[in-house]
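Intended use. Records like the one below are meant for learning the mapping from a protein sequence to its folded structure. Do not use them to infer anything beyond what is encoded.
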Amino acid sequence: MEHTFYLVDVFAEGRYSGNQLAVFRNASSLSVEDMRHLAREVHFSETAFILSDEPRDGGFDLRVFTPLEEIPFSGHAVLGAAWVLQRELMHRPVDSIRFNLGAGSVQADLVYRYGGIDTVWVNHLPPQFLACPSLDSVAAAIGLDVSEIDTRWPVQEVSTGLCFAMVPLRSLLSVRRAKVVADALSALTASTAIRALYLFASETYDAGNDFHARMFAPSFGIPEDPATGAGAGCLVAYALRYLHPDRDAIDARIEQGYEVRRPSILFARGARSDGGLSITVGGRVMMAAQGHFV
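Structure written out for the chain above:
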């Protein structure tokens, strides 16, 4: 049986940039093992499986796999899946599409320009601020000196659907120099359960951007992610809590993927509301290819 897929670039500002995503439609006939095999074969950071062209309980069931395992949430998978459904199934402008994921129900909002989709946004789950690992162990895991961590703010695990250790660094150079040290990262994971490291600095390549970021998650099968929607949501939540506690809202542009030659731009918004934080992350999506697995 053939399985149709769409290859899209998410958080892309031009052709063949951003974070690659394979999207499969009508995937309910696939077993979990089938999905794992296809995700390993595609070998992108994530592969998205829309189980049916018909919504269930008001949303489309969506499963997301890295090359190694299923994950409960992915911003770039939601954006890409929404783009594919509007373009390939609905064929008409819709304001929003809801998805049912392992982490819960999330909504993607579509913004149009010149008759086509300009930007897709995903509403994140309320942020959770969790444990703070030791600076020494985190610095060792990314091959940097502790002095390169910006200690004005904490290294802390944050989740808006998927958990990341947020690591503020003092300079763009430090972000660029970072690399995974396998033994040290394994030790960090064993002692804290941290599996994804999100590094960022306010110094950027492009003066029009607000943050430069990198994300490492080798235990998920992602040595380095070109663009991390879930991480961007955690970053604006973190920024509202620590970097800008006096602001009611943040509207940020985050650059990522430069070090892996997949330059990406993520738009991230955070606002204080009803005693909590509301987080949305958006970006542009471009079709790169479509085809069939046999």
